[in-house]
Amino acid sequence: MQRIHELLEARAARTPDAVFLFGPTGATTYAALQAMVDVAAQDLQDAGVRPTDRVVLVAENCAAHIALLMACSRIGAWSCGVNARMSPGEIAAIAERADARLCCFTAEASESADRHAQRAGAVPMALPGVMRSAVRAEARVEPDAALADTAAIIFTSGTSGTPKGVMVSHRGLLHFGRVSATVRALNERDRAYAFLPMTHIFGIGTVLMAALTGGASLVLRSAFSPVDVLQALAGEQVSNLLGPPTMYARLLAHIDAEHVVPRFPHLRYVYTGSAPLDPALKQRVERLFGQPLHYGYGLSEYAGSVFLTRTESPRTDTAAGHAVEGGEARIVTLDGQDAAQGDTGEIWLRGPGLMLGYFRDAAATAQVMRPGGWYASGDLGRFGEDGALFVVGRLKEMIIRSGFNVYPAEIEAVIGRFDGVHLCAVVGVPEADGNEQIVAFVEMKPGAVLDEAALRVQLVEHLSPYKRPARIEVIDAMPTTANGKLLKRELQARARQP
Question: Would you say domain 5-143 falls under CATH 3.30.1490.100?
């Protein structure tokens, strides 16, 4: 297979009547979804969409969104998924940066998308429930033949700066779909709970591509709801539960607050990714489900996960496991040398899932690419004695205190073990003398009150003086993106406030 839509075509030809999507309003078979792709592809072509044109999809998870993704693949256009819950200004900026030929809105399935469609003066498409904006005649096709394998442009969440358009390849998505399906042993009897936005690599790669590759079905949702997760686990034969650490934290908080006794008769695989994993959270999740919480390390720039833990050898620590097939990694010091085993440095990656670059941004691409085809991720990590990867945090989030490097994840792990703490995030704030002040934000469990004096005693027992937070602030709820990624930039801005 050369393009991602061929995965769906193969399933529709092999098992046309099998249900692929279980949605809130009904089920969608492979054949029905393929028919939607046929209509959507004709829609786009009738609107004048050409190969390498960018089509912005303002969407929340639904069958029409998947159909549009596959339709873009079939005609050679590049989909640019945008979560419909973003602001009009954010969506307009992405459409401009993508030099989009067209914007499509999944208006029927998403009130937010419908509002954006009305604001844009969009008109109905033949694909039911979808609207489109006027075609931009001045949008340029992409002349670089080396980028012809682009399947989608995923705009980064912008947690550490202005979002960039990551050009994700068909090859990378197909490769990771196979890797993820193999690691999870996905088959036709599996159902994955699918709330992760398919505007993000986690949703497209780990959820959609893996399910199509393995023949699994999706319990499709447009947003995360602890109540709905528990209902789906109990009554909709969910066998795979996947999400960022914050999802599990919210789920545990709901269970504690409502005194729920969860049922999950079919659950056999539990996975988290997209952020560092707190040891205390891992233990709580594993106690809840009575099985390992698997973990992986991936990013938009690599079409999925580069490291995964294996079902046959679950880990008791928080390592992200070993490199997947074809993936390579190095830990590199700030002066560009390979770090000694066990030392922390920047994670460099290469392999079949690596992006084709940032869309029309050669300078940004050059900033992260290194000789030999290595991508400098900006993430910090180290290799354990058995070669497993431990993710420490972001290079830009590393705090310099009293001349020492301080890694927020180490402090967060200590605070996360304290009684009553639900979530914790640590940031650095520049001081006048060039030092950085350490600030910890803490979200407590429902009904719990922070005993700061007792927490500071624990910090003294487990952390060197230069690692201890100068300030500890209780926060009602941690700020996150639509896919559950913690927005430390917002916390840093809050920490700077007098």
Answer: no
